Structures are given as structure tokens and as C-alpha cells.
């Protein structure tokens, strides 16, 4: 500790106020302004969001219907659920909602000849360029004019390993690591200004440095490629997605949300002891363990077990609310 | 089973509101961490005291959000109730460091 103070004393270094006025603050100002300009340019370039054509909208909405049914099916009565299940599985199987139902399993041609694909790709490239160019320019500017400047002292010590990174261009062996160069100030700004941008541009802003980093590492297809592209950039086979969604729907079991609702209500308002629900839960667990894998047949054959299951679900929800 | 198990409790939350809530959280945390940084730099905190200051301040803010914004029932507003205490704390640290360094530099390094 004592050695540290001595070190600090020895390195009490005065910086010229002109550096503050002409380097430190301008760099920060320029970075803020460039971020704002970039946001505006991105908004301008993107224009109004492209409208999906009728067929592809139908395709996505068809898939969504399936997942909505799976998630919220318990709010429907049994017959309604079954009817939707039957209808959707059939439609997915036959590919009614596909953009091009006849294409079926025919192998795709060269994707580069598909104008829609090329357009999405160009969009991605354009956005990536917008991200990379300003940062490169600012970094070049700082490197060209201000390399070798000691700009500021970090208020916390760092290990010696950071020296080569933070004091690049400053060939002083013994200087403490917490004195940093202009490039480090640039990086500090790059990451620290994110929340400032969030404040002045709103949360969906396009001045995101993290995205730049991603863009630099995955040059080419960015996350802007659109929902129908797999991570590899190839358009996906929609029929396969529909088939797997169909399987998911078939596996979904129906458990009506209103089953046993009287008991749950009475328990909620304290007219019946809570232990009733627990007993039913136990009964259900016992029943499933006895009957083994044939749960679906059980749920249609023994109403008591279904009631117990619903009660179990209800009890869980109730516990969550009261916690 | 199918690998994509759907949590029945999800039906109780509206995605739009959840997004709006976390946006509000981000907004509060961003401005707060910048202000904390300015305070720390002005006070001339160094080393650990600065970080301790940030985390203490964040804990205080979390408590305020918990008590005032979420009315002590965060599970009504967030999928994971603990998000109130953790979300955005580390993201705010970067801008805290920026403003801390800036003000510390301007006030205590440049005379």
C-alpha cells in the first residue's frame, strides 16, 4: 500500500489543459455526433419497412397459428381444440399454407438467382458497411492525429499486461498503466456511450458498437438477413418447418383450463383446505406412474385424473401469485 | 417430449408490456449509471472505492425500482422477478467507467 502511494506520488504528472480542450473532449463529441448521424442515416437508408407479399405473410401466420394453439390451447374447450388440431395438422401436412404448394420436395435452384434472396443479402451488406465505415474512419483519424498522446488517467489501477494495449504508441517503460493513450479513450467511449445513445436516440437505435464488433467478425450475412434465413444464410425449406410444427401439435395434449375450477376457486378463497389440491396432485402422479406411457388414453378415459392434473396446474399458478 | 416445451405460465404475460418494462428499466439504469459516474468522478474516488460506490448505488437503485416502480411485486412486471436486481447492472458499468474517468480526469488530473 505504501509502495503504491509512493508510486502515485512519483507519477503525479501534469497534463497540458490544451490536450483536454483539443483532444479529450473533441474525441468524445465527435463520437457522440457520429453515432447520432449514423442512426439517422440508417433510418434513411432503410426507409419504410418492406411489406411482405401476401403468400409469405400467410406462410408465417400459418406457422404462428400452430404455436399459438400449442401455447394457449388449454383455454379452449376440448372439442374446439381437437377441431383446430385436426385442421392444422392436415393443412401443415399438405402444405396448404406454403408459398408454392406444388414445389414440394423439388430441390431448390441456385439461390443467387432468386431476386428476393439477393435483395436481402444486399440489404445486409449495406447495413454492415454503414456500421464498419464510420468506426474505421474515426479510428484512422485518432491514429493519424493523436497517436502517442497521453490523454487521461484511469481512476483505477490495471495490471501490467494491459500496458501494451492501453499505451500503444507511447514508448515510456516506467509510466503507470493507468495513464492511457488516445486510442484507449476511443475504446472507452465506444463502449461507454451506448447508454448515452439509448438516452438520446431511444432504445432501438442503430449506433450500437456491439453490433459493429459482430459485423466485423461475421462480414457478409448479418442478423439483418431476415427471418426466413437459417444462420448459414441459406433459405430454409418451409415444408420441413411445417412438418415439424405439425409433429409438435400432434404431441400437444389438451388439458382444459376450467377443469376442476370450482375446487380451485373455493381453495383460493379459503373455503376448502389447500391440502385437497395437494392430495389430487399426488393421486395424479400415482395414476401416471401406474399407467406408464399411455397418458393420452388415460386423460380421455378417467376424468378424475384429468381433474387432478388441472388442479395441480392451478395450484402451481396460485402459488406463483402468492409468492 | 418435443423439446419445445411451452411453459403454461407464459400465457400470463403480454410480450409487448414485458418489452416496454425492460425498456423502462434500461432507460433508468442508463441515466443513473451516467449520473453515478459523474458523481464518482467529481468526488475523486479511485480504485476499489469507485467500484464499490457503483455497486452500492446500483443496489440502492434496484431497491427503489423494486419498491416504487414494481410496487414490491416484480413478478407482475417481469418474467423473472430477480431481473429487477440484475438487469443492466453490468451494461451500465461501462458507461459508469466512462463518465467516472472523464470527470476524474477533468477535475483531478488536469488542474
From TrEMBL, chain A:
What GO biological process terms are annotated to this protein in UniProt? Answer: protein folding in endoplasmic reticulum
Chief location = membrane
One GO cellular component term noted in the UniProt record for this chain: EMC complex
Q: Report the locations given in the UniProt record.
A: Membrane
Membrane-spanning residues: 23-45, 132-152, 185-207
Q: Domain of life, per the record?
A: Eukaryota
> Which stretches does the entry tag as region Disordered?
287-323
Q: Does the keyword Transmembrane apply?
A: yes
**Keyword Repeat applies:** no
Ranges annotated as biased composition (Low complexity) = 287-314
Q: Which InterPro entries match?
A: EMC3, EMC3/TMCO1
Instruction: Name the keywords, alphabetized.
Output: Membrane, Transmembrane, Transmembrane helix
Membrane topology, record value:
Multi-pass membrane protein
Query: What family does the entry list?
Result: Belongs to the EMC3 family.
Task: Output the PANTHER family linked to this UniProt entry.
Answer: ER MEMBRANE PROTEIN COMPLEX SUBUNIT 3 (PTHR13116)
Name of the featured protein? ER membrane protein complex subunit 3
Recorded source organism is Lobosporangium transversale
Automatic annotation (TrEMBL), chain B:
Keyword set includes Cell membrane = no
Q: Which residues cross the membrane?
A: 26-45, 51-68, 89-110
Q: Which InterPro entries does the record match to this protein?
A: Emc6 (IPR008504), EMC6-like (IPR029008)
Q: Which domain of life is it from?
A: Eukaryota
Keyword annotations of the record: Endoplasmic reticulum, Membrane, Transmembrane, Transmembrane helix
Q: How does it sit in the membrane?
A: Multi-pass membrane protein
Please, one GO biological process term?
autophagosome assembly
Any idea where this protein resides? Endoplasmic reticulum membrane
Q: Does the keyword Transcription regulation apply?
A: no
Q: What is this protein called?
A: ER membrane protein complex subunit 6
Amino acid at each position: 500500500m505504501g509502495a503504491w502511494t509512493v508510486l502515485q506520488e512519483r507519477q503525479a504528472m501534469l497534463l497540458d489543459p490544451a490536450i483536454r480542450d483539443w483532444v479529450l473532449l473533441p474525441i468524445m463529441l465527435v463520437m457522440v455526433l457520429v453515432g447520432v448521424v449514423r442512426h439517422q442515416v440508417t433510418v434513411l437508408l432503410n426507409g419504410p419497412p418492406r411489406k411482405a407479399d401476401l403468400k409469405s405473410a400467410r406462410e408465417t401466420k400459418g406457422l404462428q397459428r400452430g404455436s399459438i394453439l400449442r401455447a394457449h390451447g388449454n383455454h379452449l374447450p376440448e372439442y374446439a381444440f381437437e377441431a383446430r388440431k385436426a385442421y392444422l395438422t392436415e393443412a401443415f401436412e399438405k402444405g396448404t399454407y406454403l408459398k408454392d404448394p406444388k414445389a414440394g420436395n423439388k430441390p431448390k435452384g441456385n439461390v443467387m438467382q432468386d431476386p428476393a434472396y439477393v435483395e436481402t443479402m444486399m440489404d445486409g451488406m449495406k447495413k454492415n458497411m454503414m456500421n464498419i465505415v464510420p468506426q474505421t474512419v474515426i479510428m484512422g483519424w485518432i491514429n493519424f492525429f493523436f497517436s502517442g498522446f497521453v490523454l487521461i488517467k484511469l481512476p483505477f489501477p490495471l495490471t501490467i499486461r494491459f500496458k501494451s494495449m492501453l499505451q500503444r504508441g507511447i514508448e515510456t517503460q516506467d509510466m503507470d498503466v493507468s495513464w492511457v493513450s488516445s486510442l484507449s479513450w476511443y475504446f472507452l467511449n465506444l463502449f461507454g456511450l451506448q447508454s448515452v445513445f439509448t438516452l438520446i436516440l431511444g432504445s432501438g437505435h442503430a449506433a450500437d458498437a456491439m453490433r459493429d464488433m459482430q459485423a466485423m467478425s461475421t462480414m457478409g450475412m448479418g442478423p439483418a438477413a431476415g427471418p426466413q434465413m437459417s444462420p448459414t444464410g441459406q433459405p430454409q425449406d418451409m415444408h420441413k418447418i411445417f412438418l415439424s410444427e405439425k409433429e409438435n401439435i400432434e404431441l400437444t395434449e389438451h388439458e382444459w383450463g376450467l377443469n376442476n375450477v370450482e375446487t380451485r376457486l373455493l381453495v383460493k378463497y379459503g373455503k376448502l383446505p389447500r391440502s385437497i389440491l395437494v392430495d389430487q396432485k399426488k393421486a395424479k402422479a400415482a395414476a401416471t406412474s401406474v399407467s406408464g406411457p399411455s397418458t393420452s388414453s388415460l386423460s380421455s378415459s378417467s376424468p378424475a385424473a384429468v381433474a387432478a392434473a388441472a388442479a395441480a396446474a392451478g395450484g402451481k399458478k396460485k402459488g406463483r401469485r402468492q409468492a | 417430449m418435443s423439446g419445445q416445451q411451452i411453459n403454461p405460465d407464459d400465457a400470463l404475460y403480454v410480450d409487448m408490456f414485458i418489452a416496454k418494462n425492460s425498456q423502462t428499466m434500461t432507460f433508468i439504469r442508463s441515466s443513473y449509471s451516467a449520473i453515478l459516474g459523474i458523481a464518482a468522478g467529481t468526488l475523486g474516488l479511485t480504485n476499489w472505492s469507485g467500484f464499490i460506490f457503483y455497486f452500492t448505488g446500483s443496489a440502492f437503485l434496484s431497491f427503489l425500482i423494486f419498491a416504487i416502480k414494481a410496487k414490491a411485486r416484480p413478478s407482475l412486471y417481469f418474467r423473472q422477478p430477480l431481473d429487477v436486481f440484475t438487469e443492466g447492472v453490468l451494461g451500465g458499468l461501462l458507461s459508469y467507467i466512462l463518465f467516472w474517468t472523464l470527470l476524474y480526469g477533468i477535475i483531478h488530473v488536469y488542474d
